[in-house]
Amino acid sequence: MNENIFRFSAIAIFLIGAGISTYHRRKADRETGEKISPKSEGLPIMVALRVFGLSLWLGVLAYMINPAWMAWSQVDLPLWVRWTGLGFGLLAILFSYWVFRNLGNNVSPSVATRKEHQLVTSGPYRWIRHPLYTMGMVSYFSFAMLSANWMIALLSLAVFVVLNIRLPQEEAGLIEKFGDEYREYMQRTGRFLPRLG
Questions:
Q1: Torsion 81-83-88-92 (CA) sign
Q2: 149 - beta bridge partners?
Q3: What does the pLDDT look like over 41-50, one tens digit per residue?
Q4: Strand-pair partners of 107
Q5: What values do phi and psi take at 190, rounded to 5?
Q6: How remote is the C-alpha of 34 from its chain's centroid?
Q7: Are 118 and 127 in contact (CB under 8 A)?
Q8: Residues 96, 102: contact at Cβ < 8 Å?
Q9: Taking the chain, what is the end-to-end CA distance rounded to the nearest angstrom?
Q10: CA–CA distance, 137 with 164 (Å, rounded to integer)
Q11: Across the strands, what pairs with 26?
Q12: For position 147, what pLDDT does the model report?
């Protein structure tokens, strides 16, 4: 009985989150008339992100379709941890809407910026430079907790590591585009969490 609650919760979080992301990304492509290629981040990063990301989503999808398919990597977590995963998933949905709403047409599938890209410093961007990554990681780890699955947790961590390796390249592009304005922005914001003090 409990497994179905967690499974259906994962399905709902996945569908709502994917809907928000897809809507805003397509809207940005349509309204700017630009389709940005992921190749701009370089072949090694592009391949690593696709391999780990696809593996992660296949694991999550397998769990959502039939939890028994992922039973080989399931761990016995206390129920409160799994309920916490549901809470994180709901938080990720709300945060996702807030992030995409403030990011507008500046959303990009890679490190490349759009021609008319603007520096967004409102909403969550007031405190965090990369809240889209923060939201993604909260979402990924919520799936790991909901499914009580070490493989999903490990793949989530791998995606996070690759994104961290890619991040200096993304920030270098933003410095190139916005110059001192972005450097000053970096001084007052945290990468993934608000800067303390």
A1: positive
A2: 74
A3: 778 888 898 9
A4: none
A5: -95, 160
A6: 22
A7: no
A8: no
A9: 46
A10: 12
A11: none
A12: 97
Q: What's the whole-model pTM score? A: 0.90
Structure tokens belonging to residue 14: 């996945």
Whole-number Å distance between alpha carbons of 30 and 35: 8
| Token couple for 184 | 């000053």
3 burial (CB, 10 Å; 0-12 / 13-18 / 19+) is middle
Q: Tell me which residue has tokens 């809407």.
A: 97
Give the SS3 label for residue 128: strand
How many residues belong to the chain? 197
Q: Quick check: helix, strand or coil at residue 129?
A: coil
CA 16/CA 9 separation, integer angstroms? 11
Domains and CATH numbers, the chain: 2-104+115-188 (1.20.120.1630)
Task: Identify residue 139 by its one-letter amino acid code.
Answer: S
Tokens of 116: 């008319």
Tokens 């696709």 map to which residue? 50
pLDDT tier at 116 (50, 70, 90 boundaries)?
confident
DSSP state of 47: H
Residue 149 is classified by DSSP as B
Token reading at 156: 């989530």
